[in-house]
Amino acid sequence: MTTDASSFFSWSRDKLEAWFVAAGHQKFSARQLMKWVYHQGLTDVQGMTDLSRAQRDWLSATMHFKLPEVVTVARSTDGTIKWVVRVTNGNCVETVLIPDKGRNTLCVSSQVGCMLDCTFCATGKQGFNGNLSVDDIIGQVLIANSELAQRGEAVTNVVFMGMGEPLLNFDNVLDATSLLMDDLAFGISKRRVTVSTAGLVTGIRALAKATDVSLAISLHAPRNELRDTLVPLNRKYPIEVLMDACREYLDVLGEKRSLTMEYTLIDGVNDSPREARELAGLLRDVRCKVNLIPFNPFPGSGFRRPSMDNVRHFQTYMLKAGYATMLRTTRGDDIAAACGQLVGQVTDRTRRQERYRNRDAAEANRLAVQERR
Ligand code: SAH
Q1: Which of 140-149, 228-237, 323-332 has the lowest average pLDDT?
Q2: In terms of domains, do 225 and 78 share one?
Q3: Which of 32, 148, 167, 246 has its CA at a distance of 20 to 30 angstroms from the CA of residue 117?
Q4: Number of Cβ within a 10 Å radius of residue 84
Q5: From the CB of 291, is ligand 1 less than 6 Å away?
């Protein structure tokens, strides 16, 4: 047994039960503990009257129920709320709550920064400083729930579309999704818990063996030569290989469910009729919905958002081609909480921030020289 208390929120049901059994207690008691905490909101172990005195003392000595520290809260005029939270390794990540017509969608982070460096995403520019623990991820949901409880509501949908690549933090993300979908914990339907990936094929295949959580693919381009420039991971797992993995995952989801294809529309880069046509062709035998996200700018990105006309044309083409195609309206951009704008506070271990700062400085210098001419 450990001497350091561990976070209760780091334990999926299976692991908690195994831990109880290993310590000589009943599996059943682990379930009682989960109900007290997740259903009754009680974290004072001594008040858990159906556990024995010995169990309560053992739990008091070995477990804690602390949430990550909230460093700042920002509230958008459109109702979106962004929390900056300090996670176990001391860095900060961002979590965004998007209330919309009776739904409360929480966009959670899975890593501090991101290793992937997609060219149009602000998170990538922060570099990377490690994986979040299960309790760091669950803590984000509990923080949002404590806010929503004040209006008698709770998080209804969770998307792993905050900072990081969830499939590169596979084990912790898997345990977190299992708690989110567990009736003894959050009890959110598997249709409302979505892992989003930039296309880590090995991760998709591993996920298919482990669960049937909903899956979104950040596609952004219908052909390799273009996708290579937006999502560097594409050079390792090109589109054909990614689509094969998607079809395998669809077998797991079953016929009634489909994947979500995310496509960030960037002016003059991937938003022309040619890309719409190619995208419709590519996805013909991949059961999916398409989610179009007009590019959200951030300083130094070098990309622009397309005109609303272009966005509508792209959407109309996809709709006519038979794809359920949603336009993700920009939410929370006044508090830098929109897709691709999440940065947290990352102590960069990759020196990427420094490289980008130098690149920005070089670019500014070049422009200044041009201007002087
Ligand atoms: N790494 C995972 C999880 C992050 S999801 C993934 O790639 O899926 C973040 C979503 O927002 C992705 O679909 C991403 O492509 C999109 N996104 C990133 N930067 C953006 C920006 N500047 N504007 C609009 N969407 C962006």
Answers
A1: 323-332
A2: yes
A3: 246
A4: 18
A5: no
Segment 36-44 mean pLDDT: 96
Q: Are residues 156 and 227 in the same domain?
A: yes
Structural domain containing residue 151? 69-355
Query: Do residues 182 and 13 lie in contact, with contact meaning Cβ atoms separated by under 8 Å?
Result: yes
Closest atom of ligand 1 to CA, residue 217: 8
How far is Cα 339 from Cα 173, in angstroms, rounded to an integer? 20
- The answer to whether position 373 is within a domain reads no
> How far away, in angstroms, is 133 Cα from ligand 1 center?
21
143 and 13 inside one domain:
no
CB of 120 closer than 6 angstroms to any ligand 1 atom:
yes
- Which residue, judged by its Cα, is nearest atom 24 of ligand 1? 295
In 3D, which of 21, 5, 16 has the Cα closest to residue 61? 5
Judged against a pLDDT cut of 50, whether residue 1 lies above it is answered with no
pLDDT value at residue 54: 95
% of the chain at pLDDT higher than 70? 93
In a domain, 364, yes or no: no
pLDDT at 200 over 60: yes
Confirm or reject: Cβ of 124 under 6 Å from ligand 1: no
Ligand 1 atom nearest the C-alpha of 340 is: 19
